[in-house]
Amino acid sequence: MALSGRTVERLSVYRRLLVMQGQSGEESVYSHQLAEMVSGTAAQVRRDLMEVGVTGHSKRGYRVANLIEGISKVLDDPAGTRIVLVGAGDLGRAALGFIKGRNAALRIVGAFDNDPSKIGRVIHGYRCASIDELERVIAAEQVEVAIITTPAGVAQPVCDRLVAAGVRGIVNFAPTPLQVPEGVWVERVDIATALEKVTCLTRSV
Amino acid sequence: MALSGRTVERLSVYRRLLVMQGQSGEESVYSHQLAEMVSGTAAQVRRDLMEVGVTGHSKRGYRVANLIEGISKVLDDPAGTRIVLVGAGDLGRAALGFIKGRNAALRIVGAFDNDPSKIGRVIHGYRCASIDELERVIAAEQVEVAIITTPAGVAQPVCDRLVAAGVRGIVNFAPTPLQVPEGVWVERVDIATALEKVTCLTRSV
DNA sequence: TAGATTGTTAATCGATTAACAATC
DNA sequence: TAGATTGTTAATCGATTAACAATC
Lengths: 205, 205
What we know:
Two copies of one chain form a homodimer. By secondary structure, the first copy, chain A, is α/β, with parallel strands linked by helices.
């Protein structure tokens, strides 16, 4: 199928909006309505939906329930995705709060830190464990995805341990690019860059 | 000059790496070294640097100090950028910690919340003020950029107030796309999407 | 000099948009 | 039917990469 990263991002946003919309009672949407919500074009919405294989009706548009189901079939692993988080600082806490209860297919199975004062604490319902437990939990729970919310200085060594233990996908919040071997996917969430980009581009708009 | 968003993102990362590298004593870098650090190509690095106007040496590469200065001239507003943050929850706290002391050209001039229990608290050295003060501070400090770290439900009304008060650039951490008029730049930092993207693409790599 | 690197243009690649027949 | 919308292909656009003369 080979969905592009851009398409996957948009699908994720469509689904989130549709889930909200579903609660408001509307049963169907037109491509131009979805486009308006994401400030995109109707053509792109239809193209994205074509790629996931959901189909609409030439007069009534797309059924919301259909869309959510079709997008979820593409985005979610039916077996669920087990996730660990490393770095229980402000950012880690924020990430945990953000994920909690948002998507049933994403399951946090461990949060780790090397700070003894954090180990044992419960954050958003997840108990923080010692980083020494990392490899054991990854193996035991067959963890495939990890979130790095450590300081920049330890992000690479943490990444190396995660990859060695079998993690195949990483969301990196640390302000450092990570070096990973072929076959590991890294998604960067770069807060510092986002801010600098806005300040720069705001002046040229 | 019209730098593309992608180029600006990479410049921000180059600079951050170079600032670290500068501390390690190296005085110059080759394009292929920078490329390796960001997992990119040397051709793209040279192209990006060409666009900012810094120039290298055909044998010695680029001087680190030159690069940092040249990139900063493009990314930073010489007058400094004044920034407000709205939403002093976990995510707001993390963002404040992240920005603090990282870039002297970016200055947080206010953090706001509507929760009385948060107002007056000091977070990473910034005192949280009532959201009622928002417009006054934006006008008084000539704020151009804002960070939204509120829950999804209030992100749009907060955005509307910011824009009405004169903000031209927004970093949006809330999981909702924002509707803004022409001339306002929104940069989305979408944690939920990043996670879903990784879980989806990890399975197809 | 020979060899490596820069600066820049041309070629390639991929993603978005436009267009339109088919459908209801 | 007339009008609006979908599904999909072709055209356009922009960004990345390749190539190479110029430089040291």
